Amino acid sequence: MPITYHEQKKLFSLAGENTEYIFALDYAGLIKHLYWGDKTSCLDDFDAGFTFEISSNDPSTELTPEEYSPWGGLRYKEPCIKTAFADGTRDLALVYKGHEISGAVVKINLADAHYPLSVTLCYRLIEDLDIIERWAEIANGGQEPVTLQSVASAEFNFKEEDLWQSNVFGHWISEQKMFRERLTPGKKVLESRRGGTGHNHSPYFILDNGADEDHGRVYFGVLAHTGNFKVTFEKTQYRTTRVVIGINDFDFSWQLKKKETFRTPSVFCGCTDKGFGDMSRRLSILALTSIMPENHRGAVRPVLYNSWEATLFNVTCQGQMELAEKAAGLGVELFVIDDGWFGQRHSDKAGLGDWYVNREKFPDGLKTLIEKVNGLAMDFGIWVELEMVNPDSDLYRKHPDWIYNFNNRTPSTSRNQLALNLCNPEVVAYLKGVMVSLLSDNNIAYVKWDVNRPISEPGALNLPIDDQESIWYRHTLAFYDIIETLRAQFPHVAFEACASGGGRIDYGCLMRFDQFWTSDNTDALDRLAIQEGYSYMFPAKAMRAWVTDCPNFIDKRSIPLRYRFHCAMMGSLGIGGNLNKWTGAEMEEAKAFVAQYKEIRNVVQEGLIYRISSIREGHAAVQYVLGGESVLFVFTRGEQFGRELFTITLKGLDPARRYTALIDGFPVEKSGDYFMKAGITLHLPGDYASKLVRITAKT
Ligand code: GLA
Predict the structure, then answer these.
(1) What is the pTM of this model?
(2) CATH topology of 3-291 equal to that of 615-697?
(3) Which ligand 1 atom lies nearest to the CA of residue 498?
(4) 50-54, 383-387, 617-621, 668-672: least confident range
């Protein structure tokens, strides 16, 4: 049985195929975490026991590894939940009331000892992946509102004394760069306070005690939330480690009115003893089978062309049609027009909010362009940035009160724009209306949904004073509401989440969008590091990657077209260069790469990823495996000291099967065992050398 309950001990076990998670009610009435690790055969030996206080300064509540610590009593650790009752009591005393087990879900019902507030801890076991979805439901059964001052999704407790945490860090054009560090006594916080997930860190935790790609214990949990998040690592005074993950409690409060329930975002967590690679593959299977939007989940991602880097704001019907013809000639399947098609949007200074087609640029609307694109056998996609407005726009002139702001403050502009107040239902209705018209009136198959600045002056003047600190989360909920409404009404449309590049890469978006725009940084060398960091927690299928022009607009670096293609072929291939400037030879080369990508894309998009070596260490080797098919990508930075030969030991093959590796056009036939032990040797001379090797099992 995957979920086991022991009545006498009030003990719960969630057992996946390889791992087990155990907790129980202890004699003090606390839900105590007991175990997370390899599947056991000794469940009967577990019991919660009693945690004794060490001293008057070390109370048992501080020592007990609770599944969801409330703030109350003798607790000084980071809480999961902090409440204030209407009469001024700021103390939550949770008492176990019972539980429900239904299939793969177990819910632990807790309630305050006095006030009619319940807290339900929810666990859903995904047995074959050894992953558990956790969330909490807080219900106010009383008449008076209760203020939630913090409400995390889950808490995790670890006995190991020496744990390392990994995450990404960075900024615009520098997202997803991986780092790993040893946790030291005290707290470490990774968070966003920007209203969006942001470019700085990602809402997840990865902990290990000396793991590498293929070996060692790794614990992980990824939060399905787009917005202010907080991951707190607490290496306690007792040398244990706690993690509390969820909505950021900074500038947060939520008035839980009578009979209302607050459901936290989910955390998908798991553990493995097979290193970071196994973690990534488990999450990738989870994403591909049950997280990504169902209606497009199974479909391969089309090869896309996006005209942004080619034209910036200088879009015209004629110019786009010319690019479309060239893109179609390369084998592109989806043509996306980016910023600049609407309102008086000639630069980033004006027009945002005015979602009507600019008739100077498109005299008969988008019809001529879309018909042209469709006539070339391509789908048509379009860029929008709904949550924002330029002060120089008709929308702002008409509704200056539709933005976030405080009384007596001048709202800060960033990229010449202001954030619309999505807590105002009128604004949400307007945005839905705009999109419903756009998608009903035009044959649009793809929407790139952008957001280009964080929220500031977070005041929603339509909301009561008591609700002001809820705006961060309300914005997220309204954003979800708009995208979910559109998805329901236009199921054929695929959506891409973009936030100045990779500022909205999270599982909240992964549930509602088909793709991420990974970064505005399209330099292939930088991109290898960005894509590597991304690959730890997110699937290749959702990763849009473009081939653009050189010298690159960011770092002026020139990299061979071949390398740029190979890099972008590791996700969902796109092209973003100015095709008007590509030579005949470049167009021919590009056409061949697009054709090759179509042959291998199911392996990249649906397969399992194996990171073999990292560009951070000199050269990158990444392999994708789907059944008997595999694709290996190898990249160097620059030749040094005459090193041109690289031996790559493959991963993920069946040792007993025979495979053919096509190396520089020559077939090499060996067993999977040979390829994974002796490896293949590749010749990669010169600077920015790259290679794509297909490995196919013999039938
Ligand atoms: C953001 C996006 C880009 C592009 C521009 C358009 O920067 O990340 O890809 O869409 O906006 O203004």
Answers:
(1) 0.97
(2) no
(3) 8
(4) 50-54
CA of 536 to the centre of ligand 1 (A): 25
Residues with Cβ within 8 Å of 394's Cβ and at least 6 positions away in sequence, in order, are: 343, 353, 354
Which of 450, 506, 526, 549 is flagged as catalytic? Answer: 450
- Residue 503 binned pLDDT confidence (cut-offs 50, 70, 90): very high
What pLDDT sits at residue 52? 83
Task: Give per-residue pLDDT as tens, 22-47.
Answer: 999 999 999 999 999 999 999 999 99
Integer Cα distance of 210 and 164 in angstroms: 8
pLDDT greater than 80 at residue 53 = yes
Nearest to 567 by CA among 504, 523, 614: 523
Q: Is the pLDDT of residue 454 over 80?
A: yes
Average pLDDT for the chain: 97
For ligand 1, atom 1, the nearest C-alpha belongs to 500
pLDDT digits 0-9 by tens, 550-591: 999 999 999 999 999 999 999 999 999 999 999 999 999 999
Instruction: Determine the residue type at 499.
Output: A
Task: Provide the residue type at 323 as one letter.
Answer: L
What are the domain boundaries of the chain?
A: 3-291, 294-602, 615-697
Give residue for tokens 């030996």: 45
User: CATH class for domain 294-602?
Assistant: alpha beta
Ligand 1 touching residue 309 (CB < 6 A): no
* pLDDT at residue 698 greater than cutoff 90: yes
End-to-end CA, the chain: 38
Count the neighbouring beta carbons within 10 Å of the beta carbon of residue 255: 17
CA 605 / ligand 1 centre spacing (Å): 24
Across-strand partners of 360? Answer: none
Q: Among residues of the chain, what percentage have pLDDT more than 90?
A: 99
Which class for 157: exposed (0-12), middle (13-18), buried (19 or more C-beta within 10 A)? buried
Span 218-238, average pLDDT: 97
Tell me, yes or no, if 520 is annotated catalytic.
Answer: yes
Task: Give me the catalytic one of 338, 520, 523, 549.
Answer: 520
Assess whether the C-beta atom of 383 lies below 6 angstroms from ligand 1: yes
Residue to substitute in 500, 544, 546, 554 for testing ligand 1 pocket (most ligand atoms within 8 angstroms of CB): 500
Among protein residues, the one whose CA lies closest to atom 12 of ligand 1 = 339
Q: Is 441 a catalytic residue?
A: no
The CATH number of the structural domain formed by 3-291 is: 2.70.98.60
What CATH architecture is 615-697? Sandwich (2.60)
Instruction: Measure 450 CA to ligand 1 centroid, in angstroms.
Output: 7
Q: Which amino acid is residue 371, in one-letter code?
A: E
